[in-house]
Design goal:
With 251 residues, the protein is of the alpha/beta class. The protein has eight helices and eleven strands. Strand 3 and strand 4 form a beta hairpin. The relative contact order is 0.19.
Amino acid sequence: MDDNVTDLHLYRADLHIHTCLSPCGDWDMTPRAVTELAKERRLDIIAVTDHNSAENAGAALERGRALNISVLPGMEICSMEEVHLVALFDTITQALAMQEFVYNRLQGENNPDVFGYQVVANAEDEVLDQNPRLLIGAVKVDLNTLVTKIHELDGLAIAAHIDKNVYSITSQLGFIPPDLPLDAVEVSYRSRPEEAGPRLLMGLKIPCITSSDAHFTGEIGRVSTKFLLKTPCIQEIKWALEGKKGRKIVR
C-alpha cells in the first residue's frame, strides 16, 4: 500500500451493528435495512456483528456494494468467560471460517419464544431460514484462544462495550489482562473514549473506539469512530489504531 499521507481520507465508522439474526435484534434490522440506514446516516464503514454468527454478513456486503458503503463482515463472540469480543474481517470467507470455528464449539438449541427469533435474510429482505443454534450462548473457548484464532484469520479482535456492567471484559474478569493481544477496546454510547480510557484501561495503552452496538434501527450510527485511512480495510484500520503511516483515530 502507498504510504503517501496526502491520499488519506476521513471515514466515519460504526463497527458493531446487529441484524435480525441476533436473537436480541429487532426484526426490522434486516441486512438491507441496516445498510440503507447506515448510508442515510452518512456512515462510510459499518461492521455486521451478530452474536456468534456471520450468516447475514454476506447479504449486507452485497447490499453495501450497491450503495457504495463499506461493510466489514464479523461477529460478536461470547467467550467461555462470557466476555463479548467483536471480530472483524475483510472478506466473508474469513468471517465464515471464524463462524465454523465458533459453531463447532457452541452448544444448545435456540428457543425463539424465550430468546428471540434468529432470522437469516438475503439482500432483498427475503427470509431464507431461522438459525436453530443458541446464538446467545457462550462458546466453549477461552478468550485468549479466540483472539489468537481471529488473528490467524487476519482479523481484528476488539473487546466489546467495556463500559457495560455485563458481558464485558471488565465486568467478567475485573480487569484487562495485559498479555491479551487485543487490537482495541470499545465503549458504548454511554461513554467517551477519553473519559473511559483512564477509568477502565487501568494504565494499559490500548486504542479505544466507540460503536453503537445497534440492535434497533434507531440506534445505527448513534455513535461512531472517525478514522483517517487510505481505503476502508482491516489493515488500514489496524494502522489507524496503532497510529502508524499517518493513519489515526480522529477525535
